[in-house]
User: Which sequence fits this backbone?
């Protein structure tokens, strides 16, 4: 507490809401609350915005990962100190190049990558509705591929023109695939009262069975399930599949994907990515909150919670500066932990969403840096390794997003690749990521390299980019604390490629806290540059 | 851009547009005033700018603009001022196009300015890029693009790549496919002697478009391009396919036109005095330029005068598939010795198809026996009525000796010996396309795919007929007919088209070989009058025909029964110059003008058009290209006063007059048509003095 003097006191000291952490859900909530006239104080102990959703330079990323991997032990039993939840584990940083990475400060590495926006998803709608696109710029993801263990990348024919162009599909496959796309469009676009193109029974059945009925080849099924509908688990193995996608959600996702193509004239594909990283997104929401009167203080750790005399009712927070601030509501990023002494006994064991998900499940994330692209034709691209594509026991999809200097993921000439895969434990997670990495990159030969990758490497070494640096870590997906009385926790970064589920959870949380308030209404800002009406001649 | 429903204007929009209209009217009257008085002051020109920028559809405005530019250019002192005048025009057009990028006037004005030189074509390409981004199919932009690329001399290969990119972007682009066909035509033409070049190009293009067809079979743009490729594959030089008399035949003539003992004698009585004999040449497509200089006729006793070739075509163009001339036998020719006639169609510049391809050299030769010059005999004409009774027809097929007779005389010989064969490449290509089309149809039930398969099979049959005469193997007529029957059910909107195509395929099948044609061949003998007899009779009744085709195989027919079909038109009949008896009863002919081809049948004596729909529709909407005094196609020399007496007006019956005035009918059946009344009957007697029977009544 040496720096106490350097913290100026915050005025006023009473708020409707205090938010700790500037991750995406926290920022959206702060923005929504201040838009309805609430007084909001938004704090973050870090010197940067974004918390679990930030984009950081190389060294900051490593130190943040490490800081979030060990629990802070409480000073004493009586403490009301705010603790750190160990979210990350098995952190493994490899510097494979003999020289240090140049311009390491110029990287904007996403903590919870890979993640992109679908042009028609609810997140984009929210961005346009709130007008925060004026603070951001986007670039389209050039292409999607499906990969195999050898690193061969096949394109994903996801639109009519892509099907037409694709040389790897047979004529019959082209016909079948387009027929499916048309059926889905017809089904989604039908007027109420018209006959259903897809029966109710089919809609409830597993999507994979519907695709089988359609007579699609294994290759096409795999493309649709894992590269378009973005399934995580092996849908061919219905009995052991943890998340069977039914036809309804399958075609809903297909429809979302298709409506995303061509929504914005300058986006080629269905997906876009924010320049300077996904950390821009929480920051933009924070700016909007600030415009509406929210007070921001970074580098301000909270020392302890202030509880009522009964010791169970929340009153306010005590900052490391020693100042005490009070609010009716407190929202905490999920990387914080409240001493169990304070939480009602019944709530302790409850996970955030037990029942939907296997509590054991985690997500393995990886970040790779190389000097060339995994696919010469595309600078920013997605690669999907469906279950069983890397090795026979592979149970979940490995998703890969490569970004180049043109979205400022790194200095120009550098390529940053994010990987993620669902897993039950660190060993499985690392195996998934390692397999994908060795399929895509050639590793500089060194003593401790694992055996089976080497043979395959020698064949394609020259064409594959050389891996210079990598970080692998396991992130928890389940939180064992739930909101109680006036304290709420925002959701953890999920395993998905998009923000839809996060946004849903955030909106639900908002409505729980403020059941009578609207969630981010339309602002009357000038028309956005990404809007589809920018078809003027000049 | 396409397929978006138009929204009804709101109250405010309506008010705004009426306000705009008032302003525009004001500007327009000002401009017309300047235009009339040739005022090209800056103020006047500014008014026109204002007007055209808000309403580029005002064509007079553009004309005024052109005059003013010319006026300004005359007084322009240096190239800088010329440049600024033209730049101002380009700026105006650009603004006008922003208002409406499909304005013909604006695009035309831009072309006019560009053709003056001085302007940067690079800038034009950039502008086009913007317009094509707005609407990739905008054919104005594509048209202008062709103009600019020609001006800039951009190589066709580069432009071809551009269309590829556009098609990759969205293949549902008629304009891009069309431009591709234009560019490839140029490229294939330019590759001198590169026949294999053409084959490679077309092969690649078939593959390219196939991806589009399989991806979205319901999108028609690719199919249109496919049809163009198919046409290119089948395209060949025009050639002579049949003639009358047919090659190698041996014909005996008589003047009375009936069977004379055992010899078979076609009718010639109407020109018996001159002893003219018709010769007909049929080509595989409409050609022009058939004349005594392109066709040589070698005949021992030929009178030597230059033969005049007449195009047998219902329309007034100089193109026809069938051409007619008469061979004159001078009176001195008086022996029964056979004359041999040899006709050579020379490969000289002259006979060309609509696409300009020259005809290849072919020969045909036959022998003719000319009868004794017996004028008395010639004037004997039948007074009996043809009843068309069923029992009067005797099937040919049951009479082997008759069949042999017909064979030997070559009447049914329907292939030429010197037909050039189809190339292996086009045969293979059609095979491949048929296979792919079947594959597609097995996965997708699509109309245009079925239509294409039917067309491909038809093309296949045509190619086979070129290479192997009457082989009979792998002929797909039944499948084609089944496809068209399917299409009629699937797509009733285009029923008439499918019926027509069905009819053409059916006729092709019936005439494809001697055996099948024999089944429809009959001998006719009027029971009440044994002398009334015709052995060259064909019955194509009750076959649901809506259109005629394959007439080149029926040049020998003298008596034709087409009753109980669905004929809406008789186009094609004009080639049957020997036709004397024609039954068209119980069809769907709905106007006299639909019978126009019959005007050319100089041998026709008996016509039955009873129970059709003539007069049932006030306007014959099925035929919009018919001759009429209204469009000055006919009637310039008609005397409309001539028939004024007796209450008959030519005005009321000009269409009947058009068809019947030049015919020498002896017998006409016309009952069962709404148009028939006593007045019409009287009119018909008046214009056809030779008429003996009308609707079964003998006239005096």
Assistant:
């Amino acid at each position: 507490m040496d720096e106490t003097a350097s913290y100026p006191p915050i005025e006023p000291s009473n708020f409707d809401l205090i938010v700790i952490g500037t991750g995406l859900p926290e920022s959206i909530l702060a923005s929504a609350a201040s838009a309805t006239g609430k007084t909001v104080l938004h704090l973050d102990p870090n010197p940067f915005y974004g918390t679990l959703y930030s984009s950081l330079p190389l060294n900051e990323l490593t130190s943040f990962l490490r800081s979030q991997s060990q629990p802070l032990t409480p000073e004493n039993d009586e403490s009301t100190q705010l603790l750190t939840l160990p979210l990350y584990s098995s952190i493994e940083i490899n510097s494979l190049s003999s020289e240090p990475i140049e311009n390491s400060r110029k990287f904007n590495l996403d903590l919870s990558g890979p993640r992109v926006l679908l042009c028609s998803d609810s997140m984009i709608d929210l961005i346009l509705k709130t007008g925060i696109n004026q603070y951001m710029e986007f670039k389209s993801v050039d292409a999607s591929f499906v990969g195999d263990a050898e690193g061969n990348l096949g394109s994903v024919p996801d639109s009519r023109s892509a099907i037409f162009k694709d040389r790897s599909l047979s004529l019959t496959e082209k016909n079948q695939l387009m027929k499916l796309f048309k059926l889905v469009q017809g089904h989604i676009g039908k007027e109420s009262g018209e006959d259903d193109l897809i029966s109710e029974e089919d809609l409830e059945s597993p999507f994979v069975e519907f695709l089988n009925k359609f007579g699609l080849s294994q290759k096409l099924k795999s493309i649709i399930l894992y590269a378009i509908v973005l399934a995580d688990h092996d849908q061919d193995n219905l009995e052991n599949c943890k998340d069977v996608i039914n036809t309804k959600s399958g075609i809903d996702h297909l429809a979302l994907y298709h409506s995303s193509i061509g929504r914005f004239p300058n986006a080629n594909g269905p997906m876009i990515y924010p320049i300077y990283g996904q950390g821009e997104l929480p920051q933009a929401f924070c700016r909007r909150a600030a415009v509406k009167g929210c007070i921001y203080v970074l580098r301000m750790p909270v020392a302890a919670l202030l509880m009522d005399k009964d010791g169970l009712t929340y009153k306010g927070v005590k900052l490391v500066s020693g100042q005490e601030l009070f609010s009716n509501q407190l929202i905490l990023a999920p990387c914080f932990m409240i001493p169990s002494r304070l939480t009602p006994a019944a709530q302790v064991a409850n996970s955030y969403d037990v029942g939907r998900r296997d509590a054991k499940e985690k997500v393995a994330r990886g970040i790779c840096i190389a000097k060339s692209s995994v696919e010469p034709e595309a600078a920013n691209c997605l690669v999907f390794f469906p279950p069983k594509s890397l090795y026979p026991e592979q149970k979940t999809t490995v998703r890969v997003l490569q970004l180049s200097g043109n979205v400022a993921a790194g200095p120009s000439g550098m390529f940053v690749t994010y990987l993620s895969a669902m897993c039950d434990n660190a060993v499985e997670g690392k195996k998934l990521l390692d397999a994908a990495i060795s399929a895509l990159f050639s590793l500089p030969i060194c003593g401790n390299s694992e055996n089976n990758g080497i043979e395959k490497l020698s064949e394609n070494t020259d064409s594959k980019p050389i891996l210079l640096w990598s970080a692998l870590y396991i992130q928890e997906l389940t939180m064992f604390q739930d909101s109680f009385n006036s304290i709420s926790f925002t959701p953890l970064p999920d395993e998905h490629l998009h923000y839809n589920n996060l946004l849903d959870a955030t909106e639900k949380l908002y409505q729980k806290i403020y059941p009578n308030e609207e969630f981010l209404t339309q602002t009357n800002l000038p028309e956005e540059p990404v809007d589809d009406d920018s078809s003027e001649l000049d | 851009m396409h397929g978006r429903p138009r929204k009804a204007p709101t109250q405010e929009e309506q008010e705004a547009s009426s306000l705009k209209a008032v302003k525009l009217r004001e500007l327009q009257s000002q401009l017309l005033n300047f235009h009339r008085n040739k005022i090209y002051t800056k103020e006047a020109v500014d008014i026109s700018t204002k007007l055209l920028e808000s309403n580029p559809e005002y064509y007079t405005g553009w004309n005024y603009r052109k005059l003013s530019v010319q006026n300004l250019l005359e007084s322009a002192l240096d190239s800088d001022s010329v440049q600024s005048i033209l730049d101002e025009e380009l700026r105006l057009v650009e603004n006008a196009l922003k208002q409406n990028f499909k304005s013909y006037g604006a695009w035309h004005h831009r072309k006019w300015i560009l053709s003056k030189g001085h302007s940067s074509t690079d800038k034009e390409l950039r502008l086009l890029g913007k317009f094509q981004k707005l609407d990739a199919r905008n054919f104005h932009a594509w048209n202008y693009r062709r103009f600019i690329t020609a001006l800039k001399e951009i190589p066709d290969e580069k432009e071809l790549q551009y269309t590829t990119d556009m098609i990759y972007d969205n293949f549902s682009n008629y304009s891009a496919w069309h431009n591709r066909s234009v560019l490839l035509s140029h490229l294939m033409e330019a590759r001198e002697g590169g026949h294999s070049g053409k084959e490679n190009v077309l092969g690649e293009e078939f593959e390219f478009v196939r991806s589009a067809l399989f991806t979205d079979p319901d999108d028609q743009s690719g199919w249109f391009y496919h049809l163009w490729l198919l046409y290119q594959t089948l395209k060949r030089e025009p050639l002579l396919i049949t003639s009358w008399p047919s090659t190698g035949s041996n014909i005996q003539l008589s003047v009375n036109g009936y069977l004379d003992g055992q010899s078979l004698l076609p009718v010639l009585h109407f020109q018996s005095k001159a002893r003219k004999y018709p010769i007909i040449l049929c080509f595989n497509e409409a050609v022009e330029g058939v004349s005594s200089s392109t066709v040589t006729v070698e005949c021992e006793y030929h009178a030597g005068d230059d033969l005049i070739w007449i195009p047998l075509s219902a329309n007034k163009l100089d193109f026809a598939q069938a051409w007619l001339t008469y061979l004159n036998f001078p009176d001195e020719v008086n022996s029964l010795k056979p004359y041999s006639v040899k006709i050579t169609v020379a490969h000289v510049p002259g006979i060309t198809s609509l696409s300009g391809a020259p005809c290849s050299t072919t020969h045909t030769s036959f022998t003719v026996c000319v009868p004794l010059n017996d004028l008395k005999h010639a004037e004997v004409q039948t007074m009996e009525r043809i009843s068309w009774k069923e029992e009067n027809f005797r099937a040919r097929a049951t009479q082997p000796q008759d069949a042999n007779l017909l064979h030997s005389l070559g009447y049914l010989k329907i292939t030429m010996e010197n037909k050039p064969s189809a190339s292996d490449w086009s045969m293979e290509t059609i095979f491949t396309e048929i296979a792919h089309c079947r594959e597609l149809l097995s996965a997708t039930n699509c109309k245009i795919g079925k239509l294409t398969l039917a067309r491909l099979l038809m093309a296949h049959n045509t190619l086979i007929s070129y290479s192997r005469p009457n082989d009979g193997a792998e002929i797909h007529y039944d499948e084609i007919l089944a496809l068209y029957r399917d299409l009629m059910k699937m797509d009733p909107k285009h029923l008439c088209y499918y019926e027509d195509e069905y009819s053409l395929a059916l006729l092709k099948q019936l005439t494809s070989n001697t055996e099948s044609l024999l089944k429809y061949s009959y001998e006719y003998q009027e029971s009440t009058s044994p002398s009334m007899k015709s052995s060259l009779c064909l019955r194509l009744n009750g076959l649901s025909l809506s259109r005629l085709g394959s007439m080149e195989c029926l040049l020998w027919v003298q008596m034709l029964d087409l009753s109980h079909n669905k004929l809406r038109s008789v186009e094609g009949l004009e080639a049957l110059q020997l036709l004397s008896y024609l039954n068209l009863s119980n069809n769907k002919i709905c106007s006299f003008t639909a019978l126009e081809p019959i005007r050319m049948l100089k041998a026709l004596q008996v016509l039955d058009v009873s129970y059709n729909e003539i007069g049932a529709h006030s306007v014959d909407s099925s035929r919009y290209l018919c001759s009429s005094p209204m469009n000055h196609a006919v009637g310039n020399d008609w005397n409309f006063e001539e028939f004024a007496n007796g209450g008959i007006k030519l005005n009321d019956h000009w269409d009947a007059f058009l068809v019947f005035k030049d015919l020498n009918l002896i017998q006409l059946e016309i009952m069962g048509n709404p148009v028939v009344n006593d007045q019409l009957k009287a009119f018909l007697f008046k214009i056809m003095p030779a008429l003996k029977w009308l609707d079964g009544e003998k006239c005096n």
Remarks:
- Chain A touches chain B at residues 160-161, 163-165, 171-172, 174-176, 178-179, 182, 265, 535, 537 (CB under 8 Å).
- Confidence is low (pLDDT under 50) at residues 346-357, 447-460, 527-538 of chain A.
- The two ends of chain A are 58 Å apart (CA to CA).
